[in-house]
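Translate sequence into structure tokens.
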Amino acid sequence: MKITELSPLVRRITADNGGVFTGKGTNTYLIGKDEITVVDPGPNIPEHIENIINHGNGRIKQILVTHTHTDHSPAALPLSKELEIPMYGRLVDGKSDWEDETFKPHKILNHGDIIESQEYSIEVIHTPGHASNHLCFYLKKQKCLLTGDHIMDGSTVVIAPPDGNMRDYLNSLQLLKQYDIDCFAPGHGNFMDNPNKTIDSITRHRLAREAKVLRNIKNHGSQKIDDLLKHVYSDVNEVLFPIAKMSLLAHLEKLIEDRVVVFENEIYSLS
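Result follows.
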């Protein structure tokens, strides 16, 4: 597998697990030269793990995980055991259908924690939404944010309840504006410039989708979620409807919390 040098201190290896959810594959990042931190070791694919070890050249000191979905963290345990190094991250608040049950961090990371070496400083930013335990990692000197699945290149992020939460996701997007960021290094896809422009674009897209939900209930009356799906995601290929339905549910749950939509007998109506 190819390794890409993105800056003197940041290298990327993409796992061979491409698909509908993962694009070309999950990005694993190697931070540093002499004291290497691995961010998101990815799926438990032996060739991918071997590639990480080989490019680490005996200098990998620790593993950080943005979240514990099965395309991001399963390689953490075998890598940790093989190299006898710690792995850090968070556990989900409740239940997740995509949870990697093998991930047991040696230390729970909290918002604002700082991970330092002589080469770099990484600040932990808790960004729930895609997952309740989602973290972004901010390379302060490089002004680069490793976004995991909070922000992805070329695709919107799936928000899948019960662990995914649309309100948390939108709030976490705005939180990033408090940081001086020049670029995003996403969990899937390529480096992304213009961070604030990207945040604004994603936010507008989500709020426009939410407005479309309300408009369709107003125009077509009370509906079940599958009927709403056809109207609200009319611009999406029907093959992707099962994925879109997850985010639609997240929008509906937010609107119920906002008390503008009610849910009764599997029917969604305006309040």
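Note: The longest helix spans residues 195-220.
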